[in-house]
Specification:
It is found in: Membrane. With about 150 residues, this protein is mainly beta. The chain is about 10% helix and about 65% strand.
Length: about 150
């Protein structure tokens, strides 16, 4: 995970409103294989509860390429348990919130004119600290990748 931020974060009456923005750096160093990302979904989790979800436009990644994948996830009037609401309020006072960000994609590999069947790519970015202040630096987070 290369960058992340949260805007319009509001906790009221056990409900959450927020907009999360994340940038994932997808590297394809291979000189022969290119990748089709046919379907991508992105999820933000807080204490094992999904708090925001979105899909990302499909794209093609050529050989020896770095692509930045932007994901904007919105939580709108999301109902939270009393315990989750309390924990989020505490984290808000610390100036940042720690979330897990998941990406799940259906991909195909291309070598020459041959294309593979669909495969599932899962990316998990754990313990992503997102700051409420725009001037705070985002620390890059390594993510686990599974095909």
């Amino acid at each position: 995970m290369e960058n992340g931020s949260v805007q319009n974060f509001n906790l009221t009456n056990n409900h959450l409103n927020a907009t999360f923005d994340f940038v994932l750096k997808a590297e394809n160093p291979n000189r022969r294989i290119s990748v089709y990302y046919d379907y991508i979904e992105s999820t933000v989790m807080y204490e094992d509860q999904t708090i925001a979800f979105t899909t990302i436009d499909p794209f093609y990644q050529p050989r020896r390429n770095v692509t930045r994948v932007e994901s904007k996830l919105v939580a709108q009037s999301l109902s939270l348990s009393q315990a989750t609401f309390k924990d989020m309020r505490i984290e808000k006072t610390s100036g940042e919130i720690e979330v897990d960000v998941h990406f799940k994609a259906r991909i195909r590999l291309k070598v020459g004119v041959w294309k593979s069947d669909h495969r599932t790519l899962r990316i998990t970015c754990s313990s992503v600290a997102v700051h409420f202040s725009w001037y705070k630096h985002f620390d890059k987070v390594p993510c686990e990748v599974e095909v």
